[in-house]
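Let us walk through a complete example step by step. Step one is to write down the protein sequence. Step two is to encode the small molecule, adenosine-5'-triphosphate, as a SMILES string so that its atoms and bonds are unambiguous. Step three, shown after the inputs, is the structure prediction itself.
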Amino acid sequence: MLKLIASSRIHPTVLRPAHDSASPLLRVLASLGGGLSRRSTNVGGRHFFCSDSSDGSDQVVDAGVKAADDSQSKASAIVPTYPRPEDYLTVLALPLIHRPLFPGFYMPIYVKDAKLLAALQESRERQAPYAGAFLLKDEPEADPSVVSSTDTEKSVYDLKGKELFNRLHEVGTLAQISSIHGDQVILIGHRRLRITEMVTEDPLTVKVDHLKDKAYNKDDDIIKATSFEVISTLRDVLKTSSLWRDHVQTYTKHIGDFTYPRLADFGAAISGANKLQCQQVLEELDVYKRLKLTLELVKKEMEISKIQESIAKAIEEKISGEQRRYLLNEQLKAIKKELGLETDDKTALTGKFRERIEPKREKCPPHILQVIDEELAKLQLLEASSSEFSVTRNYLDWLTALPWGEYSDENFDVTRAQNILDEDHYGLTDVKERILEFIAVGKLRGISQGKIICLSGPPGVGKTSIGRSIARALNRKFFRFSVGGLADVAEIKGHRRTYIGAMPGKMVQCLKNVGTANPLVLIDEIDKLGRGHAGDPASALLELLDPEQNANFLDHYLDVPIDLSKVLFVCTANVVEMIPNPLLDRMEVVAIAGYITDEKMHIARDYLEKTTREACGIKPEQVEVTDAALLALIENYCREAGVRNLQKHIEKIYRKIALQLVRQGEMIEATDSAQSMEPTKDKVDSDELGQNTVRKENSELVEGSNPEKVGKTCDVDKEQTNLSSDQSQCIEVVKESVDGKEIETKTIEKVLVDKSNLADFVGKPVFHAERIYDQTPVGVVMGLAWTAMGGSTLYIETTIIEEGEGKGALNLTGQLGDVMKESAQIAHTVARAILMEREPKNLFFANSKLHLHVPAGATPKDGPSAGCTMTTSLLSLAMKKPVKKDLAMTGEVTLTGKILPIGGVKEKSIAARRSEVKTIIFPSANRRDFDELAPNVKEGLDVHFVDDYMQIFYLAFGDEQS
Ligand SMILES: Nc1ncnc2c1ncn2[C@@H]1O[C@H](COP(=O)(O)OP(=O)(O)OP(=O)(O)O)[C@@H](O)[C@H]1O
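Step three: the predicted structure of the complex.
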């Protein structure tokens, strides 16, 4: 059985040709090599080198073997001879797996077949050390570019006899057996052979023809040019590839004759071409064609070497950059450590936490200190990369960052506090009074205890903003969080530490944020608290707000009790009824009802206008909004209880004014520069408040330096400013002399906003009057209602659908709630009873099908307070008598006609005044509420307090008996 293992690559050998004549080709290549007498090559991981021998022939020695077995290698090396063809017509066939053997090159192979090895030994001993080396064909359908695995290689060694014969390429090389070390045989290629027939099967011997290159003309230009191109390409490759340089230097050092066919073989042999391409070169006997084939291969090699170079460069750059950074980092660390600037991560972290807690140690409760110390000790024991480490680190971070025992110095100066509160808000006397009481108590006790104040009222009445002012007045830090829609208890009480991404609750975040343990916390929209999908947020708030419990508030994340008793909680709500009862029970509700026109005028003038003007960068003297304009704005555009909408409108006006001022400035600048293209220089100054001044500097000298007012021009460009012509803006022209130069200054003096041009700034009034009847007709009565947006007037309308005996019924529409529907039924009964009593013959209610409607139909309404209004409306229809003009009423009516108290007296009074109602009827029980109202709210109202419906009857229908 034939067993061969071939080495991976062919190596240039050092055969000295018989006819030695230095060719020009060789000189070119030799110029590239160094003056090395002994060079090593490193191909396929093994070193081979060549050395001159004294007798003019060369020896090829495997360096690896040489080191181990020098004496043996010398003994077995033989002097190459130049075999005559007739002596080798039959040769042993050696299959080559990876590449063919080129003449002039050597190749080590491994022979695993003992029989073949013996035959080779024997032929060496016979002084006929030659065999035929033939490349093995691939399996049919195998891809030559795919490297075969070891398994398939093994199956190749099993080939023998005919099978092996059929797999050999026909053309091969006569190979001299240079040396045999164990199973390693070194072959040196000589001339080309072609197999003609098989002689013996084991070991395989074949008959061969010795091939000669076709004759060629040495001076043929094309051959010359091709070979020069091969050489030039080789030179280029050599410049970039040190591997190739070694090949060439070795080769050129030892080979004198560098003929064209030898050049072609050389190029192909050292290229990285695959075995079939090399075999093609080997089989080609036409020298020109062989050169062309080689040229293709070396050109390709050139491209590969370019790519190799760029890859090597990129990788080298990357590696060197990374290494540099790594080295620098390591050096930095070492330096820092040496200087004591940085210890390892854990120690640094522990140090940081200790440093943080140290100043607080005195004031910090002992149980907290104990937890911190335990956690710090634990941190030291944990592996820095473990998840528990990061949990502990985050925990310590929170624990040490909280303001344990840190309080801001409270202000107990009542006058100062009052000034601050008045500075920020107009009115709101109840709230301000409550805060001043709180301060007074704090002053007398020496400490202030946290309390819960709930500010309730319609949107935009200043609940949130007064919260901020209170904090300022008390000299406490302010923190606001909204609980509107909050459904997760963890938001308040935090997550348990063990969860990934666990966070403490809002209160702990607040303390960390403000850095003091006695801030003012504003809990906004408490009436809109969510239902809760994980626990009940209302109960969690209870623990937070209850003065009994919050001294030991337990956050799930921190897991240590925190004292929140010094925190002042202020809650805001639109509808107090929506606040869960247990929560409401712990609060002190201060209602803010909304503002009447007077109050709004003050707020607009003294607060909103001022802040908006500053925010828009406009100077006070640049604008004037008249009282009439402001009044029109409030009455026609912003009639709701709060002032947020009013604020928006004022902002709108000031934004428009700002635009107008800027445009005017640009316009003046453009006109002036057009007027004076001559030696004058215009300059537009725009100061930080947006006043535009255009200066014109004349080169003429004018005596005196007093500013001289030249004149005022009223100048409005409708298109430029986008405003109507009745807007008045004055442009003032002032001339003054500075440094002998006359400077002309034009200033836009003032933008005037009056009732007449208000629509230019804020558009047409969007508010439709609540009052839809000037004089209410029969069956229609005005009632008063309370909504979350403040008070409002509403009408109760009744009409008759059909009449007929026993047809008495009542239809209700207007999105009425259950209570209101019941209230309507009661009103129907009461009205019927009253009519029956007053006009026993009148069977109106018994025989009429009635329809009661409460506009507007799209607004849901509920509550019992319209009871008396409904009764009056039904009676008006029954008696065909309209009620008195400008009358409004509110009050719950019982079946016996008693009038029960209602809520929202202030809102309802304000709404009545807004609708220009003159007479109001309130339940007697609400007299106290009304009396407490500010005089400006009560002003101009004729109020009647009643406790029985009949009193209303007489007031409404003006019966003499009243
Ligand atoms: N009495 C007042 N004096 C001066 N400014 C006021 C007054 N009342 C309200 N404002 C201003 O009105 C604006 C709206 O107030 P804020 O946001 O506090 O209303 P709110 O009652 O909290 O409304 P919501 O219920 O919608 O939260 C603020 O800019 C505030 O300064």
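Step four is interpretation. The domain at 599-762 is CATH 1.10.8.60 (Helicase, Ruva Protein; domain 3).
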